[in-house]
From TrEMBL:
Segments forming domain Fibronectin type-III: 466-547
Protein's UniProt name: Alpha-galactosidase
Keyword Hydrolase: yes
Coiled-coil intervals: none
Region forming the signal peptide: 1-26
Entry EC number(s): 3.2.1.22
UniProt keyword Signal, yes or no: yes
Natural source organism: Kribbella pratensis
Catalytic activity: Hydrolysis of terminal, non-reducing alpha-D-galactose residues in alpha-D-galactosides, including galactose oligosaccharides, galactomannans and galactolipids
SMART domains the record matches: FN3
PROSITE patterns per UniProt: CBM6, FN3
CDD domains (alphabetical): CBM35_galactosidase-like, FN3, GH27
One Pfam family it belongs to: Melibiase_2
């Protein structure tokens, strides 16, 4: 669930949920080692109830919002998964919000017996009999309904009561402000988390989803400590490790990336985004909010790995009419989750899977890509036609082409940018077709929101592969900062400017110095191993800054043109103490008089603030060339801390204008642009 879903459905679910969280010294967390095999060694696969609980699709929730959730319906889905999907690796049955009805005499959650008349242990037992695993839902904080004037005793903690684990002012926390914040200075707080984790273990729980966690859930900025739940997460991680049963522990929703290290050390995964469900007459819609994942994921890619994965939410591709998507969108949805090693948990009615949906969910090659645990990354995101890729240990490259535009378009992945040399065999995975002796690129004409998924295997082994994805990340009058993806086999790299070697590096990145101001350079890189070198990477061409540069152009400058509701607002940490906000839809800002001496490509850097998960804008140069910009968000409602992004932009000799806009949504607040 997520904050923007303040509907009757969410409120009804919350009325049935109360739980807690707890903590102790952070260094103790790192010292603990599970006594059982690693949990979440690969992205988990299964099914979750929330997608069906959330939808208004006819017949799914006949007795009102969220009424789908019940013992009968959960076990029906479990039986369907065991029959149709278990042979392909799907194994978790996760019961989401709505199963709980208050707490027992110790404030521990109890089942809603109208929905689960035999209690949750019996449900878990039946799920286990099918050879499946049992997941359960809780929220962060102390449920207000189990506080009971502070007189609720804590299980197996003599002398500890709920009044001992909250703050005197009963401050609220979580994404809905629906629980009391727990005070971890009290030793009783950890005892409370322990009591619930052990209760879950006694029920045979294999998976715990904790919701409403901050920083994240669009709360928890530095000036909002009540919604910083890092201590809760650390305490629950300790509780889970000591519960006597292996249980996966995951966090939700829209977690803040600036706390990624905490999440990695103290959980098995985290939702990087809001709910995928549309809360409408279908389960999802492309625009609400499937497509957002392409933009929200990139800053998280390097955080995923064995034991903790980026969670993109449920995969609803199995029932066409119910899903609310075209077949092209369904394939893109499944492709994106698979290439990014996201947990694959269906949300559809598994008893009604159509032939195409079953084909998508059970393609063994696609599942193998997902389970390899090798997340893909975008070559660039400056257009809606995007190429995502992952370099594999066997020398092959997984490549996905996506057309995120609302009309058909051609998408091309160039081999030199992907680090592929010579001829290769291209396998179209969804089409189950191989094409041999391919060189130069892969390209496809794709429908709106369509995709292709390839495995590209070079025909010949090379001891050192071509460095992929060469990118400039900063520029000055006399230097350029470069990054690239590691080259297989390389022990060092040679960097060239205009064909002349200018640097050597032992890492996939360097700062090239000694350059001339206002001079055009083409940079390439070669991998090196024992005197052998790879072919050169794809080149990137750009100008260094002019003498006296880089030049900063303030968005709030009197020379800027504002339209609609775009306006100047205060920002203590921003340059000049101000920025331009309220940009989006019909409201725009245009920075004028951006002057360069010569026509060519320049690295434009943009300072912005974004407390959302991410936002996007179009940069339009001189009313003609357009580029998309992806602003990575902090996810914690912090709109006062500037960040920087960059992209190469073609400018014309003399004065230029750069318009920042998005006709389809709000964007980040803009501080300045430098050239």
């Amino acid at each position: 669930m997520s904050l923007r879903r303040r509907t009757t459905l969410v409120l009804a679910a919350l009325a049935l949920v109360s739980t807690a969280a707890v903590t102790a010294p952070a260094d103790a967390v790192q010292d603990q080692k599970p006594a059982y095999p690693q949990i979440a060694a690969k992205p988990y696969m299964g099914w979750s109830s929330w997608s069906l609980q959330s939808t208004n699709y006819p017949g799914v929730n006949p007795d009102g919002p969220g009424s789908f959730i019940s013992e009968k319906n959960i076990l029906t889905q479990a039986n369907a998964l065991a029959t149709k999907l278990k042979p392909y690796g799907y194994e978790y049955i996760n019961v989401d919000a709505g199963w709980q009805d208050g707490g027992d005499e110790y404030g521990r959650p109890v089942a809603n017996l109208k929905r689960f008349p035999r209690g949750m242990k019996a449900v878990g037992d039946d799920i286990h009999k099918l050879g499946l695993k049992f997941g359960i839902y809780t929220v962060v904080g102390l449920g207000t309904d189990v506080y009971r004037d502070g007189n609720t005793p804590i299980y197996d903690a003599p002398g500890c009561f709920t009044r001992d684990i909250v703050y005197p002012d009963l401050r609220k926390t979580n994404g809905w402000d629906a629980a009391y914040k727990i005070n971890y200075e009290s030793p009783c707080a950890q005892k409370y988390a322990d009591s619930i984790a052990r209760l879950f273990a006694s029920w045979g729980v294999d998976f715990i989803k904790m919701d409403g966690v901050g920083p994240g859930s669009w709360k928890g900025a530095p000036d909002d400590p009540n919604h910083n739940n890092t201590e809760d997460v650390e305490a629950w991680w300790r509780a889970v490790q000591n519960a006597g049963r292996p249980m996966m522990y995951t966090l939700s929703w829209s977690l803040s990336h600036r706390y990624a290290d905490v999440w990695k050390q103290n959980s098995n995964g985290w939702r990087i985004d809001t709910d995928v469900e549309c809360y409408c007459g279908t389960i999802v819609k492309w625009d609400s909010s499937v497509k957002a994942r392409w933009w929200d994921l990139p800053q998280w890619i390097d955080d995923a790995g064995p034991g903790h994965w980026n969670n993109l939410d449920a995969i609803n591709v199995g029932v066409g009419a119910m899903d609310g998507l075209t077949d092209a969108e369904r394939q893109s949805y499944m492709t994106f989750w698979a290439i990014n090693s996201a947990p694959l948990f269906a949300g559809d009615d598994l008893t009604k899977l159509d032939a195409y949906g079953l084909k998508l969910l059970t393609n063994r090659e696609v599942i193998a890509i997902n389970q390899s645990g090798n997340p893909a990354r975008p070559l660039n995101q400056d257009q809606l036609q995007q190429v995502w890729y992952a370099q594999n240990a066997d020398g092959s490259t997984t490549v996905a082409l996506f057309n995120l535009a609302d009309s058909p378009a051609t998408v091309t992945g160039n081999f030199d940018q992907l680090g592929i040399g010579g001829k290769a065999t291209v396998r179209d995975i969804w089409a189950n077709q191989n094409t041999r002796n391919v060189s130069g690129s892969v390209s496809a004409q794709l429908p709106a929101h369509g995709s292709k998924l390839y495995k590209i295997t070079p025909d010949q082994y090379v001891p050192v592969s071509i460095p992929a994805d060469l990118t400039a990340t900063d520029v000055s009058r006399t230097s350029v900062s470069l990054n690239w993806r590691p080259s297989a086999g390389a022990t060092s790299y040679q960097v060239f400017a205009n064909g002349k070697q200018v640097a050597t590096s032992t890492t996939p990145g360097t700062v090239v110095g000694g350059l001339q101001p206002q001079t055009q350079y083409t940079f390439t890189v070669k991998g090196v191993k024992y005197g052998r070198t790879s072919d050169a990477s794809a080149g990137i061409t750009m100008y260094t800054s002019k003498s006296g540069g880089p030049v900063r152009y303030e968005a709030e400058s009197p020379t800027s043109t504002l339209t609609g509701d775009a306006s100047v607002s205060g920002c203590t940490l921003c340059s000049g103490g101000s920025k331009i906000g309220n940009i989006g839809y019909s409201s725009t800002v245009t920075l004028n008089d951006i002057t360069v001496p010569a026509t060519g490509t320049y690295l434009v850097k943009i300072a912005y603030t974004d407390g959302d998960t991410s936002r996007q804008s179009m940069l339009t140069v001189n009313g003609t060339d357009s580029y998309w910009v992806n602003y990575h968000g902090l996810g914690d409602n912090d709109w006062g801390t500037p960040q920087v992004t960059y992209l190469p932009v073609k400018l014309t000799a003399g004065s230029n204008s750069i318009k920042v806009s998005n006709a389809g949504g709000y964007i980040a607040d803009i501080d300045w642009i430098t050239v």
